[in-house]
Give the backbone structure.
Amino acid sequence: MRTFLAAALAACAVSAAAGEPAGTSRADMTTGTLIGDARKIITSDKGDVRLWTHAPRVLVLSTDARVADMVRTIGGIVDTTVAAGFGDGFFSRITARTIPRDWPAADAELSMRLRPGGPAGAEIEAKLGSLYDGASDIVVAVGDRKTIALINTLWRADADGARYQAEGHPFGCFYSAHSRAGQRQAAFVSIVPPEDDRALYACLWEELLHTLGPLRDAHQTPFFSFNDRTKTWPQRENDIMLIKALYESGAGAGGDPEVVLRHFEALLEASGQDVCPHGRQENAFGCLEVAQANPSWTKTLSENLGAER
């Protein structure tokens, strides 16, 4: 086990460039408009959207028991505001395991892989010694750099994200996902906790919502939480409206992003936001003016979240 863990840490101990995350290019930057950024965030390289078609199971692995409460709070907000059509709620269950300091045992069998099975045709099989042995659809891992380096290696996580975490880079939160024919099959969230609970909640909010359908960040967007800015408080209303549009527009898994965007625009108009005309960017500064959302349903968000904006 010591040899395996040393290899995991060595694999992540690569020099990281300062400033923007690796891979951030002009194409990744905000478009300056709300609709333009929404299009960038939800559209895959194949020009479709990626959605769950069943209620996913969530496994939370953390060195801090409070993380599970944060995930349940976020899950409750999604459950009460998004009609995904899965049944009573968006998530079928949220299972939490607190990682002890002496984990893993020297003789523990450790593996985490995608295997055939589950409603989507594939699921995550997690064998984590005495911590957990079973299947899940979404795994959320939060812990110190050493623990997360091991879990990242088990999942063969994104190399850039793991490198930033090992180096103590501010961008210590990332997700990865697997889909087939537009249908989401599995997702993995990895977080080395930021310096305060507020930033940790912002990380959990952004990455957990990423697993539901928003595929990428629009770097420095002021409109959404999907912006590589862990120090900013989530743009909760816009984020939830985008998730609602993904699942309530009728586009379906593998569907046309423009169908989702038309529904998103309708939600924005109903909420009272000042939105640029579809496909136009005549006045980028005008598009940056985000009005208050409709209190008829943002009241539910505020009550559930409790924190100030």
